[in-house]
Amino acid sequence: MNINFENIKETLSKVKPVEVIVLAGVILALGVGYATFKHFRQTASKQIEATSKISFDVFIRGITLTSAENPIKQGDTTFISIRNVPYTDLTVQGVNASRKKVVLPTINTKKVMVVDDVSQANMYDVTVSLSDEAKITKDGAVLGGNKIKIGLPITLEGKNYKFNGTVSDLKVIHNVEDEALNDNNDVQ
């Protein structure tokens, strides 16, 4: 077998670096596709373990309200954005607004008092409870393609307000039908 190295060298000198990169990308994509097809690699749809209802609280610190009533009301809908990505309208399950507090020492005792801070008379901390259907994965609950975890920034927006807050509590609520099905399986 006679190998002509001059012809190989001449052919390789005509190949452009861009062509090599494109060919390597195609080969890599084919390899990933083959690994997925043979179940060596798990896709996102395979990672979802269940769909369940979740309840989460959004804590909004330092809202200045000069009106007599809170613009966020239980039963109203609020549009939420998760990490500045618009998601959907959700019904407000509950609202808890409290004025800013200050800690004061008491005279002749070792106790302290917590009282409303009169220097910030219109400043409130608000906790808003929301719920929605979420995909449950091994890493947690997912809403709108975002993992919902404590500390996640969320924006609440209504007709006359737009507040930025963070998730402060998260609960996965199991469906009653699923629990009844599990109870029936335990009996058998």
Describe the structure.
It is a single chain. The chain has 188 residues and is α+β, with helices and mostly antiparallel strands. The chain has 2 domains: 5-37; 49-177, Beta Barrel (Elongation Factor Tu (Ef-tu), domain 3). The chain is 25% helix and 46% strand. The chain is built from 4 helices and 10 strands. The protein has helices spanning 5-14, 17-37, 44-47, 176-187; strands spanning 48-64, 77-82, 85-99, 101-105, 112-116, 123-137, 140-143, 146-148, 153-157, 162-173. The strands form 2 sheets. Strands 1-6-3-2-9-10 form a 6-stranded antiparallel beta barrel. The longest helix is centred in the N-terminal third of the chain and has 21 residues, at 17-37. It starts with a helix and ends with a helix.
Strand percent estimate: over 45%
**Spatial strand arrangement across the major sheet:** 1-6-3-2-9-10
How would you spell out the order of helices and strands?
HHHEEEEEEEEEEH
Q: How many domains in all?
A: 2
Query: So what's the overall shape?
Result: elongated
Overall average pLDDT: 83
CATH arch. level architecture of the largest domain: Beta Barrel
Largest sheet: 6 strands, antiparallel, barrel
State the helicity in percent bands: 25-40%
Q: What structural class do the secondary elements suggest?
A: alpha+beta
Total strands: the figure is: 10
Radius of gyration: 28 Å
- CATH topology of the largest domain, which one? Elongation Factor Tu (Ef-tu), domain 3
Q: Describe the oligomeric state of these chains in a short phrase.
A: single chain
CATH class of the largest domain: Mainly Beta
Which consecutive residue ranges, at least 5 long each, have pLDDT under 50?
A: 179-188
